[in-house]
Structure formats: C-alpha cells, structure tokens
Write a structure and sequence with these properties.
With about 400 residues, the protein is α/β, with parallel strands linked by helices. About 30% of the residues lie in helices and about 25% in strands. Strands 1-2-3-10-13-14-15-16 form an eight-stranded mixed beta sheet, with helices on both faces.
C-alpha cells in the first residue's frame, strides 16, 4: 500500500492538468509538483512504518482534497515518527474504554502511558470562505495574458457569493489595453466596483515585452483574529476523555496553528489569560517597578483569582508543533520541511507531565504566583531542535 501510487497520481494529473494554482487542492500540488519530491519521499517513508491496520484510514485522509483531513493525518505521521525518534514506544489509534487516542506513548522511564491527541487549528471559517472566493477571482483574472502584471487587493468587507467574472475580465482587459507597454514604466492604479465587489488593481510594468498571465500579487483585508478557533479546538479535545484523572495518565494535546495570525501568543493568551502590565511609580511619577503578569481569563487558570478552582485539569500540556519550509539556495532544489516542538505545561493538571519527557526542548512553565496574578516563562528557550529536515 502506497500513498503516491502511480495510477492515483496519474489520475490527479489528468484531472488537474489545466487547473489554476489558486484553486488546486494542496494534496494535488504535493503529489504532482517536482518541488515536493523530497517531502513526498519522507511522507511515504513514514507511512510504511505504520501498523497495517491503521494504514487505510491514514491513506484516505492524506489523499483528501480537504486540508483539514490531509493535515490531521499528516501530523499523526509526524508525531508518530518524532516520539519514536526520541526513544519512546508509540501505539497509534489504540482502543481505550473511552475512545481511540491518536497516539499512546510508553517506554523509557514513564510510569504511566501518555495520551496524545493531535489537531490542526485553521483560520476562522469566515476567513477561509473569503479566501476561497478570492482565489476564484484570481483564477479567472490569471486567465488573462498581457504585457503587465497586476496586483489585486480586496477592498470589499465581504466578497459577494456571485461575481460577474465576464464583466470583471472585460474591465481589466480594457484598462490594461489603454497603456502602451513600450512607454509605461510606472505603476498605475484603478478601482473596480460592481455588485458588492470592490477591488484595487495596481498595474506593475514588466522588464520584457512578453505576454503572460497577469496576476503578479494579491492581498486580502486584515485577517480575522483566531483565538476563538484555538479555544474551541482545545475545549473539544479536553472533553474527549472524561476519565483521564482516574486513569492517572498524562494527557497532551499536540497542535499546529496552520496560518493562524494569533500564533503562539494567541495560544498562550487562551491557555493562561491576557498579559497585564502593572507599573508602580514614585511621588514624582517615575516608574520604580514594572511587572508583567497574566490575568485569569485563560482556559487553565483558576477563576476568579487564585481562590478559585482550577479548570480543565485533565490537560497536562500542549505541544505546539511549528512547521517551516526551509530556505533553498537554488529555486529548483526540492523544498524541505522542518518541525519545531515547544511544550506548554498546565501547572494545575491532575496528572502533571514531567519536564524530563521533553528534556532539551523549550518548555513554558510557571515561575511565580501571588494574589494579583501568575507569571510564566520559557526554560531551555534556545534549544530548538529541527526534526525531519
């Protein structure tokens, strides 16, 4: 059983031969583009190490056109291999009384197995829908070939569900045709507004007098804040195993914040509350003490205040998985992807996770607490170790 099996890849090639790069699913790009050859080999190699009984499920989700399905399976493969690489025994989709955790970690000096649930957090669904609609606009505009590039920016608050592409393309063609490529050497701007769609179009002169698809850049409005998505996914996973306290097994949620503008800062805010800065001044108004602490609005912190009862104590830690495409010296060289792991501990967990489990990796731990707030900080901050690059 192979993921990138020849007949399946050939089928994709025939189906998407004339498809636009803007609307082609990621799995199709991964399967067909030579630039991803190294990444395909890595995925195939990991897949072959899986137990036979889980391969059909992982195969189906990895090949799915939905990014949600593809990346959920992809990170199961990454984490499965990662824990094996640091010396643990790993079971995937093991049956427990309450369900089948993505991974179950045993071995080394662990007293109890560790349950791992893996999830990928995506942007606000409204943002994703806006992006999909914009990609359709870019696809249609890129069917125009001209002597100029065009930067396309969205000024609409919301892109309409139906766009008159014929009218839009005719407008853009006539506008571009009004400039002589031999003498036009500066940028030009125009706005397009029709039926609820408002775009700013910026003409970008080219160095060569050769026709090519026109889209040379694009930009959506400022992104929606992603904290709600982070909080929602964490809550869902935390509530999955009700008996975790009785099992006395540490419980980790491993997540990847795919394209999330909130990033790790947003994750920490949702877990431990927003950062609050308190400044003490002397009688002359000069600052004599500056203290930075977090409030008690997080998923994990007691509320109200330290006299409250800790919440979501089933969760032992969050493993933040950051994936990066590495820089290349040659643009024709296959891309390489590396993963970086940062551990965020829950100080109030019923079954705390030992710092030794991820020894040598950055870990976010509690430093101090008093009646006004709680202070956390990173230890081993400078020890990022890239995996699988």
């Amino acid at each position: 059983m192979k993921i990138f099996e020849e007949s399946w890849v050939n089928g994709l090639e025939q189906r998407y031969r004339s498809a636009s790069k803007y609307t082609t699913p990621f799995i199709v790009k991964l399967a067909l583009d030579p630039i991803f050859s190294r990444e395909r080999a890595k995925i195939e190699e990991r897949f072959q190490t899986l137990p036979e009984n889980v391969k059909p499920d992982i195969l189906g989700r990895l090949r799915d056109k939905s990014s949600h399905q593809h990346f959920s399976a992809y990170y199961e493969l990454v984490l499965y291999q990662f824990f094996k690489s640091i010396g643990y025994s790993v079971d995937i989709h093991t049956k427990l009384e309450e369900g089948e955790p993505d991974l179950l970690i045993t071995g080394k000096s662990l007293g109890k197995p560790i349950i791992i649930e893996i999830t990928t957090v995506f942007d606000d669904p409204n943002w994703q829908r806006e992006e999909q609609k914009f990609n359709l606009i870019l696809e249609r505009l890129d069917s125009i070939e001209h002597y100029f590039f065009v930067m396309v920016s969205v000024y609409s608050e919301h892109i309409p569900e139906r766009v008159d592409y014929k009218k839009l393309n005719l407008f853009v063609r006539r506008w571009l045709d009004s400039f002589d490529p031999k003498i036009t050497h500066t940028t030009q701007e125009i706005e397009y507004e029709a039926d609820g769609l408002r775009l700013k179009l910026t003409l970008l002169p080219k160095k060569t007098l050769k026709k090519a698809p026109i889209v040379g850049g694009h930009m959506l409005p400022a992104r929606f804040i992603g904290g709600k998505q982070i909080r929602s996914v964490l809550k869902e996973k935390i509530n999955k195993y009700k008996s975790i306290k009785e099992l006395e097994m540490p419980f980790i949620i491993a997540l990847n914040l795919t394209g999330m503008p909130a990033g790790e800062k947003g994750l920490l805010d949702e877990l431990f509350g927003k950062l609050v800065v308190s400044i003490k001044t002397n009688k002359d108004g000069d600052a004599v003490d500056v203290k930075e602490q977090r409030d008690f609005s997080g998923l994990l912190t007691p509320k109200p205040g330290l006299g409250g009862k800790p919440r979501n104590t089933r969760l032992s830690a969050v493993l933040n998985v950051e994936s990066r495409w590495l820089e290349r010296e040659d643009e024709n060289e296959p891309v390489r992807r590396a993963h970086f792991f940062r551990v965020i501990h829950n100080h109030w967990a019923s079954n705390p996770l030992s710092n030794d489990v991820f020894k040598g990796y950055p870990q976010f731990v509690k430093i101090s607490e008093d009646e006004t707030g709680i202070s956390f900080d990173w230890v081993d901050e400078g020890t990022d170790k890239p995996f699988d690059c």
